[in-house]
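Protein fold
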Amino acid sequence: MKSVLAVIIALVVGFAGGFVVTKQLEKQDKEKATIDIEILKEEVKNISELATLQETYTASVPYNTDSKKLWKTKIKIPFSNKSMVAEYSATIKLGLKLTDDNYELKSDDSTIRVILPHSEILSHEIDEDSWVLKDEKNGLFNPLKPEDDSKLRKLAKKTVLEELDMDKLYKEADENAKEQIEDFLKLACPDNEIIVEFK
């Protein structure tokens, strides 16, 4: 009888001990997950700016000014308009700009969910070696000036953005960003399901 009672007590103690150990391990796992998610948030924030798409193009953009007018009148001065054409190459980079408050990173026992902002233009740079001005025409008392070149550069960038299929480029940049963030998180947390979404 004593031996049966001893076995029962041993089983109860063993079960209770196993339950306590299991709970302790679960607690440690949860604490570890909490620590990991904070580290991940910091790592994602450190990415700061992630270029995911680069598009290089060539373009030709005309520049024309209206004729000058006589002082304080609406009378146009003949032959005073000026014009030129720029031919050039440029590169647009699209991707993510991450700040403390524009993305979210959440986690449960098996899933890490990231909610990102959509891609935007990170840079739009003209290749200076490719910049060529053609068909330059000075107006009467209205010659071309350095500021006209500056205005043409701004006009060139604006014009091309209106002509390119930017919706398609933004979509492709988002897809690339999703893949890159997924790969990064899978490397850091191989046992978790990674879900990347956009706001």
Q: What stands out?
A: DSSP finds three helices and seven strands in the chain. Residues 4-25, 30-35 have pLDDT under 50 and may be disordered.
